[in-house]
Amino acid sequence: KQEVTQIPAALSVPEGENLVLNCSFTDSAIYNLQWFRQDPGKGLTSLLLIQSSQREQTSGRLNASLDKSSGRSTLYIAASQPGDSATYLCAVEEGDMRFGAGTRLTVKP
Amino acid sequence: ETGVTQSPTHLIKTRGQQVTLRCSSQSGHNTVSWYQQALGQGPQFIFQYYREEENGRGNFPPRFSGLQFPNYSSELNVNALELDDSALYLCASSPGIVYGYTFGSGTRLTVV
């Protein structure tokens, strides 16, 4: 059974810092991995999709990497801003999607 | 139409009642999945439909059921509501495996 773990559960940083969010999964037989952002009480906004054959994807200040063999993915956020405050979720797709519990990020002005 | 639209946005029901949640996906998105998200947790997979047939199910009882229609809309039905069914219900659709999923804004269900 696939288990997805996200570390840390919560993170508070001052504005401008670069930061890394971690995601690990137990079964490497995945089709892809997707990072999402969720604001309080809202739905999920897709940030980056990494297909199983890819190693990383970049969008603006965001960079996500995937190492299937070790069952790990990282989301790198450069020059964090208060507007980045949200919960970040990673999910692996193996037909359906399995989610971690998320990392709650607070960026202080 | 672009994006995934869910209705209603909020709903309050009494224990024991039945509820139907609705989702409208983009044209061409043959796969639709439903998720339950309790407060402070990640979304939990309820079931998935592909071309109007159930294509996978998570660890949810039979009182959770669904339908997918040819016009890319779908429904989640929950019978005999329990207090623990209170959660955010998310619909997600995809045109295929390599494209990832697009999520709706969710329906917040409160059972009292």
Biggest beta sheet summary of chain B:
7 strands, mixed
The helix/strand series of chain A, from N terminus to C terminus, equals: EEEEEEEEEEE
Low-confidence stretches of chain A: none
Total number of β-strand segments of chain B? Answer: 11
Mean pLDDT reading of chain A: 96
What is this structure's SSE topology?
The complex is a heterodimer of chains A (109) and B (112).
Chain A: E1 4-7, E2 10-14, E3 19-25, E4 32-38, E5 44-51, E6 56-59, E7 62-67, E8 72-77, E9 86-94, E10 96-99, E11 103-108
Parallel strand pairs in A: 2-11
Antiparallel strand pairs in A: 1-3, 3-8, 4-5, 4-9, 6-7, 7-8, 9-10, 9-11
Chain B: E1 5-7, E2 10-13, E3 19-24, E4 31-37, E5 44-50, E6 53-57, E7 64-68, E8 73-78, E9 87-94, E10 102-103, E11 107-111
Parallel strand pairs in B: 2-11
Antiparallel strand pairs in B: 1-3, 3-8, 4-5, 4-9, 5-6, 7-8, 9-10, 9-11
Overview of the structural elements:
- The complex is a heterodimer of chains A (109) and B (112).
- Chain A is mostly beta strands and 109 residues long.
- Helices cover 0% and strands 61% of the residues of chain A.
- Chain A has no helices and 11 strands.
- In chain A, strands 2, 4, 5, 9, 10 and 11 form a 6-stranded mixed sheet that branches. In chain A, strands 1-3-8-7-6 form a 5-stranded antiparallel sheet, with no helix packed on it.
- Chain B contains no helices and 11 strands.
- In chain B, the strands form 2 sheets. In chain B, strands 2, 4, 5, 6, 9, 10 and 11 form a 7-stranded mixed sheet that branches. A 4-stranded antiparallel sheet of chain B has the order 1-3-8-7, with no helix packed on it.
- In chain B, a hairpin with a 6-residue loop joins strand 4 and strand 5.
- The A-B interface holds A 4, 31-32, 34, 36, 41-46, 49, 51, 89, 91, 93, 95-102 and B 6, 33, 35, 40-45, 48, 55-56, 58, 88, 90, 92, 97-106, 108.
